[in-house]
Every structure is written in C-alpha cells, then in structure tokens.
Amino acid sequence: MPREVRKIIFTAEELVLAVRSYDRVTTEFLPRGEVRSVQVEDRGGVRLTVSLQAGPAGATDIDVAPRDAIELLIRACLENNIPIPLRAAKFLAVVDGDLAMVMDLVDEDVVGPVLQQPRPSAMGRMPVRRPAA
What we know:
Elements (H helix, E strand, L loop, with lengths): L3 E7 L1 H14 L8 E9 L3 E8 L5 E6 L1 H14 L9 E7 L2 E8 L2 H4 L22
Antiparallel strand pairs: 1-6, 2-3, 3-4, 5-6
Helix pairs in contact: 1-2
C-alpha cells in the first residue's frame, strides 16, 4: 500500500523564532537568556543546539532533546496556520542544512496505532507520543 510522507523545512531564521516562541510558553525549556542562534547537525542522528546569550557572563550552548525539537516545530506550525496531520509519525531530518519535521502518514487500520510504533533511529527519527484523550 502506498504511503504519504510530508516534510516541513524550517530555515535558520524560522527555527530561531520557533525556539523563542516555544521557550515563552514552556517552563524550564531553556535557562534565562537571549536566543542568538540555532545550529542543526546530522551526525547519525539530528542534533539541535541553541546558543544563548546569558547576560554579561557570556554565551552558552544547550542541546535540545529530539522530543522537545518536534514539539517546538509542531507549535510553530500551529502558530503559523500550517496544517499538520494528527495521526502521523513525526521525526526530525536535515534537508540541505535546514531542520525538517518529517511526517509519515500511515494507515492505522493497516499497521496499528501510529504513535505507538517506534521508527528506526536513523536520521534522528523520534515519534511523538500523544497522551490518550
């Protein structure tokens, strides 16, 4: 059966805005400071690092957990009216140096509950698990 896979790619500027927005509404996501930049690396898995200016003490780098990265991208999509499928396995990838949220739309009737099936960890794949309603 055919599968549908969608990618939403975020530029460096969009990623900084997404991190700032997520930080405003999520307690204890980042320490106090101004988000200066966000680096994306693909080293056998996607790595997202936020550079903060933490007052006069200087800059600090914070690694973002894959689950937090997916959640902040989902929030950015919702804030910008970008439709995203609820029932899709969501994982991170690097596309042309930019961070992408990849959504694998799998037919639940064929393969079972989508959000409960782990995906291979290659390319930083990390499904988002939603609490039962």
